[in-house]
Structure formats: structure tokens, C-alpha cells
Amino acid sequence: MALRTRGRRGHLRRSRYGYGAYRYVAPRPRRRPRRPSRLGLGPWPWLLAGAGAAVGLVFLVPLLLAAFRWLFAALGLGLPLVVLTLAADAWLLWRLGAAGPPLSWRRWLGLHLLLAAILGALGLLAPPWRFAGSSLGDLSAGGRAGAFLTGSLPGLLGWLAATLGAVWALEPRSVRLAVRGAALTGRWLLSLDIPSRSWRGLRAFLVWLGSLLPSGEEDSLPELSPRREGPPLVPRWDEEWEPLPEPSAPAASPKAAQEKASREEKREKEEEAVPRRRRTGNGWELPPLELLNQVSDESRPPDNEARAQLIVDTLRSFGVDARVVSIQQGPTVTQFGVEPGWEVKTRQVQERDDKGRPVYDKDGRPRYRTEVVSRTRVRVNRITALANDLALALAAPSIRIEAPVPGKPIVGIEVPNSAPSVVTLRSVIESSNFQKLASRSRLAIALGKGVSGEPVPADLARMPHLLIAGATGSGKSVCINSIIACLLMHNTPDEVRFVLIDPKRVELAAFASIPHLVFSKVIVDVEEVPGTLQAVIQEMEGRYRTFASLGVRDIEAYNRSPKAPEKLPYWVVIIDELADLMMAAPYQVEKQLCRLAQLARATGIHLIVATQRPSVDVVTGLIKANFPTRIAFAVSSQVDSRTIIDMAGAEKLLGRGDMLFLPTDAAKPRRLQGCYVSDAEIDRIVAWWSDERFRHLRPEPLDHLLLQAQAEGGGLDDPLFEAARELAMQHNRISPSMLQRRLNVGRERAVRLMRALEEMGIVAPSDDPLASRRVLVRGDDEDYF
Prior knowledge:
Elements: E1 2-5, E2 8-14, E3 22-25, H1 44-75, H2 79-99, H3 105-123, E4 130-131, E5 134-135, H4 143-151, H5 153-170, H6 172-191, H7 196-211, H8 254-273, E6 278-279, E7 285-286, H9 304-317, E8 322-329, E9 333-340, E10 342-350, E11 368-377, H10 380-384, H11 387-394, E12 400-402, E13 411-416, H12 425-429, H13 432-438, E14 444-450, E15 455-459, E16 466-469, H14 476-490, E17 496-501, H15 529-550, H16 555-560, E18 570-575, H17 578-584, H18 586-599, E19 605-611, H19 621-626, E20 629-632, H20 638-645, E21 658-662, E22 670-674, H21 679-689, H22 703-712, H23 721-729, E23 733-734, H24 736-743, H25 747-759, E24 773-774
Parallel strand pairs: 16-19, 16-20, 17-18, 18-19
Antiparallel strand pairs: 1-2, 2-3, 4-5, 6-7, 8-9, 9-13, 10-11, 12-13, 14-15, 14-22, 20-21, 21-22, 23-24
Helix pairs in contact: 1-4, 3-4, 3-5, 4-5, 5-6, 9-11, 15-18, 15-22, 17-18, 24-25
């Protein structure tokens, strides 16, 4: 039975409390059937939209952080005040539309001007605080805005105007009282009768105050002492000091100024004439740089741009696309840096319209267009193969192509200069590169200048041995002289000693009187060379025994050790011509040189060996293996170049100091123009060290080492005497040359062994020490022994 009760439909159900009792039961709510989505996607679009919002929020957070950092850098500590001001403006706009303006426009403007005044005040502060990636110490407490308001004239004027405007807007009565007081004070001053002389006195006071400020010509305070240009004044011992000139009056006459200028010029000339002395702590004085020639002006040919264009045109004529990107001017050659271009392959394609039909021109012929098929770099070997053609186009005797230039993506084409310049030793020594190296090493040497004109020094202690080879007249001996001169300019005999071996007798004779020699003379006899090298080996072994007794590893640690009785000097052994020594005693000299090259570095003994015949029988594989640092001058063939530096290139050098320097840490040699030292410079350096004032400081020569080594190299007590006796008894005749070949000894030692055999009566006597002799005792003659 249906029943409607107060607008709700229901039904009556019999109650359990008795027959005829009914109760009202509300109807069950009907579930409205779910209407399917028109798109049929279900809840997935909402899930995707929520995920997109989350991802957008993730990306929005860094943007908000970046905006916060920018706002903090712009406003600093004034950022909260600006945020509060903007919030107050929003509230005022809401109240303006709801219940009318709660604040007058004057006070609203005054509060905003007060905010600008506070930012300017914060700009005067710079606390060492850092927040949000910005340092308030670098900007200001008010950020960039505060720094602008107090750090520039427009900003400062704006800050003052904002401050005054804020005071006027917030307290107009106080401003009116201040203006009225200022007007009354001005009226009172105008009413006073100030004499004109008081005004003149005030003006004079202002002029005097302005004279105390620095003038516009000088932007710094006056110096306490007069400044002098050029090198410092170092007087001679026998000259007297001149009194300093009195300061002249402000308004000096032209005649007095001219006399003063001439006097200063004369003094500067005298200072230049006096060499600057470089004293050392042990009583020696290093030679001044004034003994060397001045730096010569390098000539700059004006046709480098024309030659660069000629290189590009020549390569283009052979179908090679390239362009010159750098020009490095050197003393002898100019390096043009060439960047390879592109090889573009194209084909002709018939043009078609939008519907694929061929397009014809007005004459009825089909039209074609060019299409790029491939685009590749030009091969480097295409440029290197045109070396002779480039030399012909540039009218150069020879050019050298370095492909690629180490550390640069270019090909270097080295073209000789029309007017080469001389590289002086002084120009390299005075460079910052050499001075930096000389402050760390005793054996810094000046090699020359590179293809771009930069000075190139080297450290002999790190080489540790140097092999120099080149044809006659290529600059080999000049390079040795420059190395010796450079070491003499920076080292005393207590620091560096020389062993000079000169089979040609004339190249190193100029250094015979310097106190740096280990022995009392320059070794010129080939027969004395094996004994000299043996003496150096004995010194090396003695130093190793000394190092072992103190527990040190090398000469640097020994010289720093407080247990060392005295510092050991470095030894530099220089051999000017290796070919003569290899002809006289090849096996013995090679053995001694290789032993020194392998073991002498730690003891401070370094070798510099030069030869003008770089063949395989002179520069053997064993010698090359122990001389990793090499210098190749101009040679006659590519075979000689490969013998020296294991690659071609030295046969294309120009001579006269043009060289390839191959250090130990480089895969390719570096082209240099060697330093030139004249005979006059060498004479001045030798004369400086040979002066009588250093006579009491000259070290004693170590000739006893030479005599001891020569005594051990022949005679009855020679270890090879028994081998020589057995060799002689196996033949009918024997000669010193046979002893040299069979026993691998030098000529002098073979002569002494022959003399010992003669004293024992084994061979017949002879007036000629090099002649073949008859053997008197055979091996089967047992009665003799």
C-alpha cells in the first residue's frame, strides 16, 4: 500500500506488535544509471591531466626559484618590503571597490616614496652575507636597485627626491615649517651688508682649497722620490756619487730646462756605459748582459698577404679547396696556416613541377638543377703532394709542409723570408720564457726562436744529453758556442764545469782560458780522448759512491743535504766532432759514450755530441738510443735526416742556423732559428772570466784524473795485456791496428800495449810506434816462460 508522507513516497509494512499495526518504510533510493562518456575514454583523461599538472609543477619550481633569485639579486633585503607593499596595494584596490578609499592619495604616494628611500638606505650597506646565489657584499643590502640609487648620480638624485617627497607626503606640516625657516634665514642674510672685500677673501680661500687638490694632468699622488726610467744605476767602484739636483722652481726658464735635459741625457749615457754587475754569494761576478750584442730589429716583409693569396690560388688551380687562416712571421721562415676545405660532388637533375611533370624553358628544352651528392674534407696528402708546385709559384728555393701543426687543426706551409733576420743570444736570454726556466734550472740554454718568433729555451738537465748533427756550414759549431756562452753567462765555476773535446783544434780554442774547464786544456788529440772519457767515467763512479754513503739519489739531493761537505758542480762534456773519434777508436768511444749516457744523468754529468757526418757508422743505433734529444741542421740527403731524427725534413732546411729540434717529450721536431754568437761576444765573455780579480777563486784543474786514467789504459798492469800477449803469440807479425780491431781499444792504448810487449821481449823493437812488428816468441815456445 503506497503512501505519500510529506512529499516522500513510501509504503506501509505490518508491524510485529500486533495485527492491524503498520509502520512507514521509506523507499529505497534508486541508483541513477551511469551515463557513458561521449568519447568513451573513461577516467584516463583525468589521470593524464593530473600527471601533466604534476610534471608542469616540477618544471615550474625551477622557474620560480630562478625568478626568486633574480628578484633577490635585484632588491636584496628590500624584497619583503616590496612584497608587503604589493599586497597592501591589492587590499586597497579591493576596499576601493567595496567601501571607498581607506587611505588618502598623498599618504599612499608617501608610503611608496618611503619604500624607495629605504631601498636607497639599504644600498649604503654591504654586509658579507650570501643568500640565493647572490652575495650582498658584492651588490649591496638593497640589491642592484639600492646600488643604483646610491652608486650613480641619477640614482642619487632620485633617492634624495624620493626621501624629500616621502617626508612631504607624510608630514607636510614639518616641510612647510622647514621651508619657512629657510626663507627667513635667506632674507636675514640678504639684509646684512657684507663688504666686497669679505667676498674676495672667501673667493681666495676657495681658490687655495682648490690648489690643494691634484691637477687634472696627474691622476695620482706625487711620489716621494723622483722616478727614473731605464735600468737602475750601478756605479763603478772608483767613481764618486753626484749629489741629487735641487728641485727647480715651478716656473723655470727654457735655458734651465734645456740644461737639465742635457744633464739627464748625459747621465743616462754614463749609466748605459757602466755594465750592471751580478754578484754571487761565493765571490764570483756573473757577466753582465751588456757584453752581448743588442737585439736586432727583425725585418717584416710587407708581402705576406699577397703570398697567402698566391697559396690559395695555386691550390685552387689544382682543384684543392683551402684557405689561409693564420700567418706566423718568424726570423727565417713564415708559417702560413692552411685549413683544408671541402670536396663537393654534384649531379644534374631534371626539374619537375608539383605534379611530377618535367619543366621546360622557353625554347622547349628541359631544365636541370645541380644537386649535392656528397661533401667531404680535402685530404691532407693532396696538399702535401703539391709542395714543389707551391715552391714554384712562390719562387722559393724550398718549402716545408708540416701536416698537421701540433695542437692546431691546420696544415703549416713554411716559406722562407726574402730578408731573414739574425737571432741574437741576448734577445732570447732577456725573454720571459728563458728567465722563468733559468729560475728553476742551472742548465737552462737558449736555443733560438720558433717559426712565429717566440723564444725557445731548453733545460739540459732534463734532456739529459744532446746529439747535434748537420752538414758543414749549417750552423752546428755556432750552436755549440751559443750553448757554452749561455751557460757561462749564468753559472760560475763552482756550479758548472766543462770538458771540451775538439778534434778540429780551432772550434773550441777560444774557451781555453776560462776557469770552468775541468782539465787545464781543451782536449785536441784524438789519442787522449779515450783516456779523457775514462776519467769522466771514474768521476761518475766516484760520485755514485759518495751518494751511496750519504743515502741520496742524485746531485740535486746531494747539494741540498746538510751532510754534504761541499756542493758538487755539474759537468758538461762537449765533443765537437764525433766522426774523428769513431774513426780512431770506434768500439771504445762508443762503449764509453753509451755508458756515460746511461748512468751519468743522476751524477750531474751531461753530454753534448756533434758531428757533421750523420751516417750509420758514426751515429750508431746504440748512440741514438741513448741520446733521445737531437738537433738536426741542414743535411744533404733524406737518408741523413732519417739517421738523425728518424724522419725526413732536415734536407729541406735553409742552413745558417735553421734547425729541427726534437725533444724527448715530442713526437715531431720543432723548427727553430738558432742563436748567433759572434767572435767578439765570445772574446768579451772569456775576457770577463779570465780577469785577474778572479785569480784567487779559480778552482784547481783535475789533471790527476786524466793522468790516472791514461796510466790505467796501457802497460804491464793493463787488464788487456795478457790478451795482447796471447794474440801476438798466435801470429808472426802484429801491429797496433790489429790490437785496436781485436781488443776494441784506442790507438794510444794499443801503442802502449805494443810498447809493453816490446819491453817483455815478445815483439821486435821499431822506431815507428804504428808499424807492424815481428813476433819473437811463439805460442809453442814454453822455455821462454
